[in-house]
Write a structure and sequence with these properties.
Blueprint lengths: L10 E6 L1 H4 L9 H16 L3 E6 L2 H8 L9 H25 L4 E6 L1 H5 L1 H16 L3 E6 L13 H11 L4 E6 L4 E2 L11 E2 L1 E2 L4 H5 L15 H13 L3 E6 L4 H7 L6 E3 L8 H9 L4 E5 L1 H10 L8 E5 L7 E5 L5 E6 L4 H7 L7 H5 L13 E3 L1
Parallel strand pairs: 1-2, 1-5, 2-4, 3-4, 5-9, 8-10, 11-13
Antiparallel strand pairs: 6-7, 9-10, 11-12, 13-14, 14-15
Helix pairs in contact: 3-4, 7-9
This protein binds glutamic acid.
Protein backbone atom coordinates (compact mmCIF):
# COMPACT_ATOMS: atom_id res chain seq x y z
CA UNK A 1 0.00 0.00 0.00
CA UNK A 2 2.75 2.46 1.02
CA UNK A 3 3.17 4.27 -2.31
CA UNK A 4 0.78 7.17 -2.63
CA UNK A 5 -1.65 7.23 -5.54
CA UNK A 6 0.25 10.02 -7.24
CA UNK A 7 2.59 10.73 -10.08
CA UNK A 8 2.20 14.44 -10.45
CA UNK A 9 -0.28 17.12 -9.51
CA UNK A 10 -2.66 16.64 -6.63
CA UNK A 11 -5.26 13.98 -5.98
CA UNK A 12 -8.67 15.58 -5.72
CA UNK A 13 -11.93 13.86 -4.77
CA UNK A 14 -15.14 15.74 -5.61
CA UNK A 15 -18.50 14.62 -4.22
CA UNK A 16 -21.72 15.92 -5.71
CA UNK A 17 -25.13 15.21 -4.20
CA UNK A 18 -28.51 14.64 -5.78
CA UNK A 19 -29.70 18.10 -4.70
CA UNK A 20 -27.02 19.72 -6.90
CA UNK A 21 -27.42 17.28 -9.81
CA UNK A 22 -31.17 17.55 -10.21
CA UNK A 23 -33.86 20.21 -10.10
CA UNK A 24 -35.78 19.88 -6.85
CA UNK A 25 -39.28 20.15 -8.27
CA UNK A 26 -39.11 17.98 -11.38
CA UNK A 27 -36.22 15.69 -10.47
CA UNK A 28 -34.82 16.38 -13.95
CA UNK A 29 -31.07 16.60 -14.33
CA UNK A 30 -29.44 20.00 -13.85
CA UNK A 31 -27.62 19.79 -17.17
CA UNK A 32 -25.87 23.16 -16.89
CA UNK A 33 -24.40 22.22 -13.51
CA UNK A 34 -23.27 18.82 -14.76
CA UNK A 35 -21.71 20.36 -17.87
CA UNK A 36 -19.86 22.97 -15.79
CA UNK A 37 -18.62 20.30 -13.38
CA UNK A 38 -17.44 18.09 -16.24
CA UNK A 39 -15.54 21.05 -17.74
CA UNK A 40 -13.85 21.88 -14.44
CA UNK A 41 -12.85 18.27 -13.72
CA UNK A 42 -11.55 17.75 -17.27
CA UNK A 43 -9.56 20.98 -16.99
CA UNK A 44 -8.01 19.81 -13.71
CA UNK A 45 -7.06 16.53 -15.39
CA UNK A 46 -5.39 18.52 -18.19
CA UNK A 47 -3.40 20.38 -15.56
CA UNK A 48 -2.02 17.05 -14.33
CA UNK A 49 -4.23 16.52 -11.28
CA UNK A 50 -5.79 13.16 -10.50
CA UNK A 51 -9.53 13.31 -10.09
CA UNK A 52 -12.14 11.05 -8.51
CA UNK A 53 -15.82 12.02 -8.77
CA UNK A 54 -18.21 10.60 -6.19
CA UNK A 55 -21.69 11.12 -7.59
CA UNK A 56 -25.06 10.43 -6.04
CA UNK A 57 -28.16 10.49 -8.16
CA UNK A 58 -28.88 6.86 -8.96
CA UNK A 59 -32.13 6.84 -7.01
CA UNK A 60 -33.13 10.40 -8.00
CA UNK A 61 -32.44 9.85 -11.70
CA UNK A 62 -34.12 6.43 -11.58
CA UNK A 63 -37.26 8.01 -10.12
CA UNK A 64 -37.30 10.67 -12.83
CA UNK A 65 -36.82 8.02 -15.53
CA UNK A 66 -39.72 5.98 -14.17
CA UNK A 67 -41.83 9.10 -13.55
CA UNK A 68 -42.14 8.37 -9.83
CA UNK A 69 -42.84 11.44 -7.75
CA UNK A 70 -41.88 10.10 -4.31
CA UNK A 71 -38.66 8.65 -2.99
CA UNK A 72 -39.06 4.86 -2.70
CA UNK A 73 -39.78 3.62 0.82
CA UNK A 74 -38.94 -0.06 0.61
CA UNK A 75 -35.43 -1.36 0.28
CA UNK A 76 -36.16 -3.61 -2.71
CA UNK A 77 -37.90 -0.82 -4.65
CA UNK A 78 -35.06 1.59 -3.91
CA UNK A 79 -32.53 -0.97 -5.08
CA UNK A 80 -34.49 -1.57 -8.28
CA UNK A 81 -34.78 2.15 -9.00
CA UNK A 82 -31.07 2.68 -8.35
CA UNK A 83 -30.32 0.02 -10.96
CA UNK A 84 -32.34 2.04 -13.49
CA UNK A 85 -30.83 5.38 -12.48
CA UNK A 86 -27.17 4.38 -12.17
CA UNK A 87 -26.86 3.34 -15.81
CA UNK A 88 -28.64 6.46 -16.94
CA UNK A 89 -26.40 8.65 -14.78
CA UNK A 90 -23.24 7.06 -16.20
CA UNK A 91 -24.48 7.45 -19.72
CA UNK A 92 -24.93 11.18 -19.18
CA UNK A 93 -21.52 11.58 -17.57
CA UNK A 94 -19.88 9.59 -20.35
CA UNK A 95 -21.58 11.71 -23.04
CA UNK A 96 -20.43 14.95 -21.40
CA UNK A 97 -16.89 13.81 -20.57
CA UNK A 98 -16.51 12.26 -24.05
CA UNK A 99 -17.08 15.68 -25.64
CA UNK A 100 -13.90 16.75 -23.85
CA UNK A 101 -12.18 13.43 -24.61
CA UNK A 102 -11.89 12.60 -20.95
CA UNK A 103 -12.25 8.85 -20.22
CA UNK A 104 -14.22 7.87 -17.13
CA UNK A 105 -14.93 4.62 -15.26
CA UNK A 106 -17.77 3.43 -13.08
CA UNK A 107 -16.77 2.21 -9.59
CA UNK A 108 -19.61 0.95 -7.38
CA UNK A 109 -18.68 0.13 -3.79
CA UNK A 110 -20.38 -1.30 -0.73
CA UNK A 111 -19.06 -0.93 2.78
CA UNK A 112 -18.18 -4.63 2.72
CA UNK A 113 -15.69 -3.90 -0.07
CA UNK A 114 -13.79 -1.56 2.22
CA UNK A 115 -14.30 -3.51 5.46
CA UNK A 116 -12.34 -6.51 4.20
CA UNK A 117 -8.60 -5.82 4.19
CA UNK A 118 -7.85 -7.73 0.96
CA UNK A 119 -10.75 -6.12 -0.88
CA UNK A 120 -9.73 -2.71 0.48
CA UNK A 121 -6.23 -3.17 -0.91
CA UNK A 122 -7.68 -4.40 -4.21
CA UNK A 123 -9.84 -1.30 -4.43
CA UNK A 124 -6.80 0.87 -3.64
CA UNK A 125 -4.84 -0.81 -6.45
CA UNK A 126 -7.71 -0.43 -8.92
CA UNK A 127 -8.00 3.30 -8.19
CA UNK A 128 -4.24 3.64 -8.55
CA UNK A 129 -4.32 2.03 -12.01
CA UNK A 130 -7.32 4.10 -13.13
CA UNK A 131 -5.62 7.31 -12.02
CA UNK A 132 -2.37 6.29 -13.70
CA UNK A 133 -4.37 5.76 -16.90
CA UNK A 134 -5.66 9.32 -16.64
CA UNK A 135 -9.24 8.10 -16.12
CA UNK A 136 -11.72 9.86 -13.83
CA UNK A 137 -13.41 7.15 -11.72
CA UNK A 138 -17.07 7.99 -11.06
CA UNK A 139 -17.95 6.37 -7.74
CA UNK A 140 -21.29 5.62 -6.10
CA UNK A 141 -22.54 3.25 -3.46
CA UNK A 142 -23.64 -0.01 -5.07
CA UNK A 143 -27.22 0.70 -3.97
CA UNK A 144 -28.65 -2.23 -5.90
CA UNK A 145 -26.90 -4.86 -3.79
CA UNK A 146 -25.92 -3.05 -0.56
CA UNK A 147 -27.62 -4.50 2.52
CA UNK A 148 -28.48 -2.38 5.55
CA UNK A 149 -25.71 -3.60 7.86
CA UNK A 150 -23.08 -2.88 5.24
CA UNK A 151 -24.18 0.46 3.86
CA UNK A 152 -22.26 3.70 3.86
CA UNK A 153 -25.72 5.24 4.11
CA UNK A 154 -24.72 8.49 2.49
CA UNK A 155 -22.22 9.51 -0.14
CA UNK A 156 -20.57 12.09 2.15
CA UNK A 157 -19.18 9.21 4.23
CA UNK A 158 -18.38 7.20 1.10
CA UNK A 159 -16.46 10.13 -0.41
CA UNK A 160 -14.41 10.60 2.79
CA UNK A 161 -13.48 6.91 2.83
CA UNK A 162 -12.58 7.05 -0.88
CA UNK A 163 -10.47 10.18 -0.25
CA UNK A 164 -8.62 8.26 2.44
CA UNK A 165 -8.31 5.17 0.22
CA UNK A 166 -6.65 7.13 -2.59
CA UNK A 167 -4.71 9.30 -0.10
CA UNK A 168 -6.18 12.43 -1.62
CA UNK A 169 -4.93 15.94 -1.01
CA UNK A 170 -8.41 17.47 -1.30
CA UNK A 171 -12.02 16.44 -0.78
CA UNK A 172 -14.69 18.80 -2.12
CA UNK A 173 -18.21 18.20 -0.79
CA UNK A 174 -20.47 20.03 -3.25
CA UNK A 175 -23.86 20.83 -1.83
CA UNK A 176 -26.79 23.24 -2.11
CA UNK A 177 -25.49 25.77 0.44
CA UNK A 178 -22.42 27.94 -0.06
CA UNK A 179 -20.76 27.11 3.27
CA UNK A 180 -21.25 26.02 6.84
CA UNK A 181 -22.98 28.62 9.02
CA UNK A 182 -22.86 29.28 12.74
CA UNK A 183 -26.67 28.77 12.79
CA UNK A 184 -29.39 28.00 10.26
CA UNK A 185 -29.25 30.98 7.83
CA UNK A 186 -32.83 30.36 6.67
CA UNK A 187 -34.22 31.12 10.12
CA UNK A 188 -31.49 33.01 11.95
CA UNK A 189 -30.42 36.41 10.55
CA UNK A 190 -27.33 36.38 12.81
CA UNK A 191 -25.99 33.20 11.20
CA UNK A 192 -22.40 33.72 10.07
CA UNK A 193 -20.56 31.75 7.38
CA UNK A 194 -17.57 29.80 8.71
CA UNK A 195 -14.60 29.97 6.35
CA UNK A 196 -12.04 27.82 8.16
CA UNK A 197 -12.24 24.99 10.65
CA UNK A 198 -8.85 24.16 12.11
CA UNK A 199 -10.18 21.40 14.36
CA UNK A 200 -13.55 19.73 14.07
CA UNK A 201 -13.98 20.02 17.87
CA UNK A 202 -14.06 23.84 17.45
CA UNK A 203 -17.45 23.48 15.79
CA UNK A 204 -18.95 22.37 19.09
CA UNK A 205 -17.82 25.68 20.62
CA UNK A 206 -19.44 27.58 17.77
CA UNK A 207 -22.64 25.61 18.32
CA UNK A 208 -22.91 25.03 14.63
CA UNK A 209 -26.33 24.06 13.45
CA UNK A 210 -25.85 20.61 11.97
CA UNK A 211 -29.37 19.27 12.29
CA UNK A 212 -30.26 19.82 8.63
CA UNK A 213 -31.49 16.59 7.07
CA UNK A 214 -30.70 17.51 3.49
CA UNK A 215 -33.09 17.74 0.58
CA UNK A 216 -35.99 15.55 -0.48
CA UNK A 217 -33.79 13.44 -2.74
CA UNK A 218 -30.44 13.45 -1.03
CA UNK A 219 -29.75 11.53 2.15
CA UNK A 220 -27.02 13.72 3.60
CA UNK A 221 -27.19 17.06 5.38
CA UNK A 222 -24.68 19.21 7.23
CA UNK A 223 -24.23 16.61 9.98
CA UNK A 224 -23.03 13.94 7.54
CA UNK A 225 -20.75 16.50 5.88
CA UNK A 226 -19.09 17.39 9.17
CA UNK A 227 -18.73 13.68 9.99
CA UNK A 228 -17.19 13.15 6.53
CA UNK A 229 -14.82 16.06 7.10
CA UNK A 230 -13.71 14.44 10.37
CA UNK A 231 -12.96 11.14 8.59
CA UNK A 232 -11.10 12.83 5.74
CA UNK A 233 -9.09 15.33 7.80
CA UNK A 234 -7.99 12.49 10.11
CA UNK A 235 -6.46 10.92 6.98
CA UNK A 236 -4.70 14.22 6.18
CA UNK A 237 -7.16 15.30 3.48
CA UNK A 238 -8.07 19.01 3.27
CA UNK A 239 -11.87 19.10 3.04
CA UNK A 240 -14.09 21.83 1.58
CA UNK A 241 -17.85 22.35 1.68
CA UNK A 242 -18.98 24.58 -1.19
CA UNK A 243 -21.90 25.20 -3.51
CA UNK A 244 -22.52 22.57 -6.18
CA UNK A 245 -24.16 24.95 -8.64
CA UNK A 246 -20.86 26.81 -9.11
CA UNK A 247 -18.25 24.13 -9.94
CA UNK A 248 -15.84 26.93 -10.98
CA UNK A 249 -15.37 27.54 -7.27
CA UNK A 250 -13.23 24.39 -7.16
CA UNK A 251 -10.68 26.08 -9.43
CA UNK A 252 -10.78 29.27 -7.39
CA UNK A 253 -10.36 27.44 -4.09
CA UNK A 254 -7.41 25.46 -5.46
CA UNK A 255 -5.91 28.81 -6.53
CA UNK A 256 -6.17 30.04 -2.94
CA UNK A 257 -9.50 31.89 -2.78
CA UNK A 258 -11.46 31.74 0.46
CA UNK A 259 -14.79 30.32 -0.66
CA UNK A 260 -16.99 27.88 1.22
CA UNK A 261 -15.82 26.21 4.42
CA UNK A 262 -12.36 24.65 4.55
CA UNK A 263 -11.40 22.03 7.12
CA UNK A 264 -7.64 21.86 7.66
CA UNK A 265 -6.10 18.40 7.48
CA UNK A 266 -5.17 16.94 10.86
CA UNK A 267 -1.57 17.95 11.66
CA UNK A 268 -0.77 14.35 12.59
CA UNK A 269 -2.99 12.17 10.38
CA UNK A 270 -3.42 8.57 11.50
CA UNK A 271 -1.66 6.03 9.29
CA UNK A 272 -3.61 4.31 6.51
CA UNK A 273 -4.07 0.99 8.32
CA UNK A 274 -5.25 2.59 11.57
CA UNK A 275 -7.57 4.89 9.61
CA UNK A 276 -9.05 1.77 8.02
CA UNK A 277 -9.58 0.20 11.46
CA UNK A 278 -11.19 3.38 12.80
CA UNK A 279 -13.53 4.23 9.92
CA UNK A 280 -13.88 1.53 7.26
CA UNK A 281 -14.60 -1.36 9.58
CA UNK A 282 -18.00 -1.95 11.11
CA UNK A 283 -17.58 -2.98 14.79
CA UNK A 284 -19.34 -6.24 15.69
CA UNK A 285 -18.94 -6.13 19.46
CA UNK A 286 -18.17 -3.95 22.47
CA UNK A 287 -15.75 -4.35 25.37
CA UNK A 288 -16.45 -2.22 28.45
CA UNK A 289 -13.21 -1.44 30.29
CA UNK A 290 -12.45 -0.46 33.85
CA UNK A 291 -11.29 3.09 34.47
CA UNK A 292 -7.60 2.12 34.71
CA UNK A 293 -7.55 0.28 31.38
CA UNK A 294 -9.55 3.04 29.66
CA UNK A 295 -7.06 5.61 30.95
CA UNK A 296 -4.00 3.54 29.91
CA UNK A 297 -5.37 3.21 26.38
CA UNK A 298 -6.60 6.76 25.91
CA UNK A 299 -3.65 8.62 27.42
CA UNK A 300 -0.71 6.26 27.22
CA UNK A 301 -1.39 4.33 24.00
CA UNK A 302 -1.21 0.98 25.81
CA UNK A 303 -2.55 -2.37 24.55
CA UNK A 304 -5.70 -3.81 26.15
CA UNK A 305 -5.17 -6.74 28.54
CA UNK A 306 -7.81 -9.18 29.76
CA UNK A 307 -7.52 -7.80 33.32
CA UNK A 308 -9.04 -4.46 32.27
CA UNK A 309 -12.26 -5.83 30.76
CA UNK A 310 -15.47 -5.43 32.79
CA UNK A 311 -18.00 -6.80 30.31
CA UNK A 312 -18.42 -8.03 26.75
CA UNK A 313 -21.27 -7.39 24.33
CA UNK A 314 -21.93 -9.03 20.98
CA UNK A 315 -20.71 -12.16 19.25
CA UNK A 316 -17.41 -11.99 17.44
CA UNK A 317 -14.40 -14.02 16.38
CA UNK A 318 -10.72 -13.31 16.81
CA UNK A 319 -9.46 -10.49 14.50
CA UNK A 320 -12.88 -8.87 14.19
CA UNK A 321 -13.38 -5.15 14.96
CA UNK A 322 -14.76 -4.11 18.36
CA UNK A 323 -15.53 -0.89 20.20
CA UNK A 324 -13.69 -0.19 23.45
CA UNK A 325 -15.77 1.79 25.93
CA UNK A 326 -14.99 3.41 29.29
CA UNK A 327 -17.04 2.35 32.36
CA UNK A 328 -19.74 4.94 31.46
CA UNK A 329 -20.22 3.30 28.04
CA UNK A 330 -18.56 6.10 26.04
CA UNK A 331 -16.58 4.76 23.10
CA UNK A 332 -12.90 5.65 23.47
CA UNK A 333 -11.21 3.44 20.90
CA UNK A 334 -11.67 0.77 18.23
CA UNK A 335 -9.50 -2.20 17.50
CA UNK A 336 -9.09 -5.74 16.20
CA UNK A 337 -9.61 -8.24 18.98
CA UNK A 338 -7.36 -11.30 19.52
CA UNK A 339 -10.06 -13.48 21.13
CA UNK A 340 -13.66 -14.45 20.41
CA UNK A 341 -16.42 -13.29 22.78
CA UNK A 342 -16.62 -16.85 24.18
CA UNK A 343 -12.92 -16.90 25.00
CA UNK A 344 -13.07 -13.41 26.44
CA UNK A 345 -15.88 -14.35 28.80
CA UNK A 346 -13.52 -16.97 30.28
CA UNK A 347 -10.47 -14.73 30.66
CA UNK A 348 -11.85 -11.24 31.34
CA UNK A 349 -10.68 -9.68 34.59
CA UNK A 350 -7.75 -12.11 34.78
CA UNK A 351 -4.00 -11.64 34.57
CA UNK A 352 -2.47 -12.47 31.16
CA UNK A 353 -0.25 -15.17 32.78
CA UNK A 354 -3.41 -17.11 33.73
CA UNK A 355 -4.80 -17.23 30.17
CA UNK A 356 -3.25 -20.63 29.19
CA UNK A 357 -4.70 -22.28 32.32
CA UNK A 358 -8.15 -20.69 31.83
CA UNK A 359 -8.42 -21.56 28.12
CA UNK A 360 -6.38 -24.77 28.06
CA UNK A 361 -4.13 -23.34 25.36
CA UNK A 362 -1.72 -20.44 25.01
CA UNK A 363 -3.24 -17.38 23.36
CA UNK A 364 -2.11 -13.84 22.64
CA UNK A 365 -0.84 -11.85 25.60
CA UNK A 366 -2.96 -8.85 24.70
CA UNK A 367 -6.69 -8.74 23.95
CA UNK A 368 -6.23 -5.81 21.55
CA UNK A 369 -2.65 -5.00 20.63
CA UNK A 370 -1.84 -1.29 20.40
CA UNK A 371 -0.81 -1.71 16.73
CA UNK A 372 -4.40 -2.76 16.03
CA UNK A 373 -6.01 -0.12 18.21
CA UNK A 374 -7.08 3.44 17.40
CA UNK A 375 -7.98 5.96 20.10
CA UNK A 376 -10.91 8.07 18.90
N1 LIG B 1 -26.19 6.42 -3.45
C1 LIG B 1 -27.39 7.23 -3.49
C2 LIG B 1 -27.79 7.53 -4.92
O1 LIG B 1 -26.99 7.46 -5.80
C3 LIG B 1 -27.23 8.57 -2.82
C4 LIG B 1 -26.76 8.58 -1.42
C5 LIG B 1 -26.70 10.04 -0.95
O2 LIG B 1 -27.55 10.84 -1.34
O3 LIG B 1 -25.80 10.38 -0.18
O4 LIG B 1 -28.91 7.85 -5.17
Amino acid sequence: MGNRVRNMGQTIVVKIGTSSLTHGETGHLALATIAALVEVLSQLRQQGHQIVLVSSGAVGVGCARLKLSDRPRTMALKQAIAAVGQGRLMRIYDDFFSVLQQPIAQVLLTRGDLADRDRYINAHNTFRELLKLGVIPVVNENDTVAVDELKFGDNDTLSALVASLVQADWLFLLTDVDSLYSADPRTNPDAKPISTVEQIEDLAKLQVQAGDRGSRWGTGGMATKIAAAAIATDAGVRTVITKGQIPDNILKILAGDTIGTQFSPHPEPINARKHWIAYSLVPVGTLVLDAGAAQAIASQGKSLLAAGILSIEGEFQSQEPVRLCDPTGREIARGLVNYSNTELSLIRGNHSDDIPALLGYAGAETVVHRDNLVVL
